[in-house]
Amino acid sequence: MAATQKLACFRLPPLPTIKEIIKLYNLRAEKQLSQNFLLDMRLTDKIVRQAGNLKDAHVCEVGPGPGGLTRSILKAGAANLLVVEKDTRFIPGLQLLSEAAPGRMRIAHGDILTYRLERGFPAHIAKTWEDVPPNLHIIGNLPFSVSTPLIIKWLEQMSNRTGCFMFGRTRLTLTFQKEVAERLTASTGSRQRSRLSVMAQYLCTVKNCFTIPGCAFVPKPNVDVGVVHFTPLAQPQIQQPFKLVERIVKNAFQFRRKHCRRGLEMLFPESQRRELTEELLRGADVDPTLRPTEISISEFRALADAYSKLCEENQGLIDYDFREELKLKHQAKRQLGSNHKGLKLHTTMEENVNDNH
């Protein structure tokens, strides 16, 4: 009997279906915002199950839209749900849902890329980083256009223990295009291995939970969708600042089909490029003929440590950008060409004057 009552308290009162909400408020998915609605409650329930036990949990849902995933989160027993929605068209439908779950759901109108999530939850739920994760979850069916910049932002906050990671090792359950989901979880040596794989896996345990076929969404996207779960590691696999690690990884993957030496040498000014690249690879004990996809996390750790040492020994190296050097080189070349043309024109005019005389 007690168990039945427990389940009953998670049940929402009768509400219009998501299809009816869409019709009632004349909602249409905006292509420019890459919106796709998930109407099948069995699938939204399945996404929520990947987050773990949500009974009495604090949850932030990103981009709830018409509220399908929101209902599943409330049904799972979340005690404090904050939904962050950028599109004002969805607010009335979400308010209807909030009224059906009094005291359990708050609506914030804002852009998740700039929204200060740490202000949305009480300080007492925080855990130390080495402790078990806090009873706080971020869940979202992300628009494709923001999914990659958003996870990069959250990974940086995770590294710095800022934002929602001020509360400890906050877990994330998010949707991505299937291809991005595969990149996030790709192992060393696999075809899908990318910058995103390394940046996510050095900071988290990343699990590709399941794939949702595109036909389950309205409107149907041209791709399938992967559900990915992230649990931050108590000890990141690379103990260097996020921006330094990102610089190493980004440069390594710049020429993904070439040997890693080709991308890593762009970390250094042209005048010292050969010498410092050799020093970096020797210090890290990394084979210069490896492809970027073949470099393991431990090898990236060695590269980051060796690069950090070189930056300490070479003033200004950390701020070097090869694109800036290339730009200045092109400008100087154009200026030289312009001066040469001017000189040629001046000489021709002098010759013409002399001929007339």
From TrEMBL:
InterPro entries tied to this protein: KsgA/Erm, rRNA_Ade_diMease-like_C, rRNA_Ade_methylase_Trfase_N, rRNA_adenine_dimethylase, SAM-dependent_MTases_sf
Coiled coil: none
SMART domains in alphabetical order: rADc
Family label: Belongs to the class I-like SAM-binding methyltransferase superfamily. rRNA adenine N(6)-methyltransferase family. KsgA subfamily.
UniProt keyword list: DNA-binding, Methyltransferase, Mitochondrion, RNA-binding, rRNA processing, S-adenosyl-L-methionine, Transcription, Transcription regulation, Transferase, Transit peptide
GO MF annotation: an example: RNA binding
Enzyme class: transferase
One cellular-component annotation, GO: mitochondrial matrix
Protein name as it appears in the record: rRNA adenine N(6)-methyltransferase
Secretion signal span: none
Domain Ribosomal RNA adenine methylase transferase N-terminal, chain residue ranges per copy: 43-234
Matches recorded under Pfam families: RrnaAD
Binding annotation for S-adenosyl-L-methionine: N36, L38, G63, E85, D111, N141
Species for this entry: Onychostoma macrolepis
Subcellular location: Mitochondrion
One record GO biological process: transcription initiation at mitochondrial promoter
Cited PROSITE patterns: SAM_RNA_A_N6_MT (PS51689)
EC number: 2.1.1.-
